[in-house]
Amino acid sequence: MQVGLGLLCALLVWQIATRSLPAFLAKNHPHAALALRPSASEPQLELAGKAAGTLLDDTVQLMDVGAAKAAEAAGLAQPAQVTAAPLASSEQIRAWAANAVASAPLSARGLAILGALNAQAGDVKSAERFMSAAAARSLRERAAVAWMMNERFHAQDYNAALRFADALARSSPQSSQIILPYLGRMAENPRSSARFTELMKRNPPWRATFFDRLTGNIADARTPLSLLLALKTTNAPPTQNELKAYSSLLMQNKQYDLAYNAWLQFLSPEQLAKAGFLFNGGFDFELSPFAFDWTPARGKGLLIDRAGRMQTAGGMALMIEFGGARVDPVLLTQTLMLPPGDYRFEGKYRGDARTRRGLSWSVRCLGQSATINAPSDPRFGGEQPSWTPFSFTLSVPATDCRAQLLQLQLTAHSPSDTMATGRLYLGELKIIKERVAGASEDSQAQ
User: Fold this and answer.
1) Dihedrals φ, ψ of 429, to 5°?
2) What's the rounded Cα separation, in Å, for the pair 113 and 93?
3) Which residues are registered as beta bridge partners of 336?
4) Cα 248 to the center of its chain, rounded Å
5) What is the rounded distance in angstroms from the CA atom of residue 72 to the CA atom of residue 247?
6) Residue 437, exposed/middle/buried by CB under 10 A (0-12, 13-18, 19+)?
7) CA torsion angle for 133, 190, 220, 248 (degrees, to 10)?
8) Nearest CA to 228 among 208, 257, 252?
9) Whole-angstrom Cα distance, residue 439 to residue 414?
10) Separation CA 141–CA 133 (nearest Å)
11) CA 247 – CA 291 distance, rounded (Å)
12) Tens-place pLDDT, residues 228-272
């Protein structure tokens, strides 16, 4: 009996020493683990992974070179190129990885290491065999998935390339700099654009990043608009942030007409019916983060928000409340798209805003500093308990003025002039085309 128990104890100790203990030591003491069990897969994989860590990282970073080639033809910004450094003792690493895979055939990490070694040696066919097997076992094996994305893209197997890009973007968001150029090219390629659009309709977690980083990743500014329109009727329509990112890109590149037309296509029917020379002049709608709507200043000592009209039945107004601190002198802006001609801006205001030099309106052509409106009354603001009308005229030149910037600002010559207290209410703002002799009433619009 005692002999049997002794043998059982010895067997347990042997199992612990040759199996459990090597597995426990594999992470931090792989050489000790191998001394206990030379055939153990865990310590060999750990040793191979540590030695090949730089190689695997470079395998992913080398995808930047592929992204650069994908972008080069379109003249897009190219990601930084990285060259894999020569790796010492590659045969030892190969032996560790091969033994690990032999003991654990489902090891995606071991297969990826072997794939990276073959890629570095220039054996692309063998590298693809190992990388494909690694990616099939785990889409979280970043090096293998990135390598397969690049290979499938350059083989023009866009369905597979898009599948790998999607998997990599989901499992490794930090790899977006590598992935986005590929996604951009596939969004624009006629052979892959339909599949890309269908994927976007499923609202992948990287969709917002794609729209947020369009610069350098697309060649045609209309590509994102086609995507956004395709998403419009889905269960995951474009978000305001996605629309704003696209609109901002167009405005930065002075593509004002395309930005304006894109913005119009995402207005509600009610908003579109009231869109004229000036948008949301009655403040009927919540302010949106687009250049063609009102953009209020933000900051300590300043509150700008919609409010119900006082002393007037119905309607909304914009309230600007000053807290006595220094504020940005530009309080309110809106980008206009007025054709050449003469116009009149008019509206009403009331309140008790107290400023050193008053407030004024200005209109200038985007990209230019000179104003194109008649000087407004510097006393605009001040004590005005009842709604009071105001107006000024402006003339849009025929050249170099496709878009205009309307601003309400504090008249300020020094920082102290930006301090104000009280409230100002604005309402019934509109722009009217000045009547031309002989023109019909239909030629005027608000």
Assistant:
1) -80, 140
2) 8
3) 404
4) 11
5) 25
6) exposed
7) -70
8) 208
9) 46
10) 11
11) 8
12) 999 999 999 999 999 999 999 999 999 999 999 999 999 999 999
Nearest to 293 by CA among 309, 271, 314, 315: 271
Span 357-364, average pLDDT: 90
* String of DSSP letters for 397-424: -SSS-SSEEEEEEE--SSGGGGEEEEEE
Residue 271 token pair: 């908003």
Tokens in use for 307? 């409010």
Q: Please list, residue by residue across 136-148, b when 16 or more beta carbons sit within 10 angstroms of its beta carbon and e when fewer do.
A: ebbbebbbbbbbb
Beta pairing class for 302-308 and 316-326 = antiparallel
The values of phi and psi at residue 354, to 5°, are: -115, 115
Nearest Cα to 209, choosing from 264, 169, 248?
Answer: 169
Residue for token digits 């060259």?
Answer: 83
Query: Tens digit of pLDDT for each residue in 282-339?
Result: 999 999 999 999 999 988 889 999 988 655 555 899 999 998 888 889 999 999 999 9
Amino acid (1-letter code) at residue 445? A
Q: Which two tokens stand for residue 428?
A: 């019934």
Give dist(CA 200, CA 194) in Å, integer. Answer: 10
Model confidence pLDDT, tens digit, residues 57-97: 555 554 554 445 444 544 554 433 333 433 445 665 555 55
Q: CB of 33 within 8 A of CB of 25?
A: yes
**What's this model's pTM, rounded to 2 decimal places?**
0.78
Which sign, positive or negative, has the C-alpha torsion 164, 168, 171, 173?
negative
Tens-digit pLDDT profile for residues 374-407: 876 655 667 788 899 999 999 999 999 999 999 9
CA distance 418 to 93: 68
375's CB contacts (< 8 A; 6+ apart) are: 360, 392
